[in-house]
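Backbone shape codes:
===
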Amino acid sequence: MSISVRIAYNQWVQDRGSGAGTTIAVVCAAATLALIPAFLMGAVGPVLRRDLGFGADAMGGLVSCYWVFMALAGVVSGRWVEVAGPRASLLTGSAISAVALLVCASAPSVWMLFVGMALAGVASAMATPGTDVLVFRRVPQRLHGLAFGIKQSSLPAASMFAGLGVPLLALTVGWRATFVAAAFLAVPVWWVVRSEPRKVPEARAGGATAATRPGGPSPRMVWLVLGMMLAMGAVSAMGAFYVESVTQRGISTGVAGLFLALGSAGGVVGRFALTWRIPDTWDPFVVAAACVGVGSIGSLGLATTHRPDLLAVLTVVTFTSAWGWNGLFTRAVLALDPAVAARSSAKLVTASATGGVLGPLAFGALAEPRSLTAGWCAVSAVLMAAAVSWFGSTWSSRCRA
């Protein structure tokens, strides 16, 4: 570990004049702010539901509303970022996210919360392509793995901030103050983003530009995006139903939560390690496919295992592999055609959000008339389908070459 840290530090020192540190700080701050509303809504849910008087079904609808509008806005955000640039993307996304948090803070009823979550979903769709493009074009190529690994950790960072907000604010001064405090996080984000140049150097792809690219996606991109939607649907269902399924096997809620925390930590480590340390000679889509394939096998184990020690090991292995591919995959998709990196990122946003909505809904619909075991088997099948999709895209590309 110490050798890896020294290597990272030496690379960082060598490239300090490139502004890589500032760029990574910009994208992490903006990405975290864009994700906070969804996690904060779940974190303060019990207090919020008691004050406004709505049920668990409405709470589920609020979270789904975020992902639905993120998917819808992702359809157009890529082309907009190509025109306006990543700086405008981050500033706009951060501003809308702050407005969304303030709308939630002032909500007199659950319907105003839906408005706030819809705005938050749009904000995330606007900011995400800008963060990806900024890293891809401003950070030196040899630091791409490190940068994307750090950037993809913004999701657990948002979850951490939301969790800290409960004991520090929600249970002391109220949930409304928690949303207001989160909105003020936009101030340092704007301050840092303003330091970025208005124009970011365009990436080159054989001399072509975004304007010369065909309008429709390539067959390979279709398979990659489809696999992304399937994989994100499966991992969203894993996170949503893990604790409930484990507690049904006689394990306490506290222990189940600890297992989930261990698995989530593994996912963070996996995102960072896979994105940073995988050699450039390895096909990133094959690596990602292998990861979700391991996750598929692990999901079958989670469906049937009752021993606590074995369950803990399976949880770490399954979550690390099933969640750890995201940064590596995103970086590789953007590298396929740098001239349309923003458009490619927006496609991934739409696919991720669509999977985030459909995955838990499908798991619940399948498990309700049958059992949670059936839901886990379905998760395994969907992860394997994602692996096949990514393997197939790589194989077909090699055949055409």
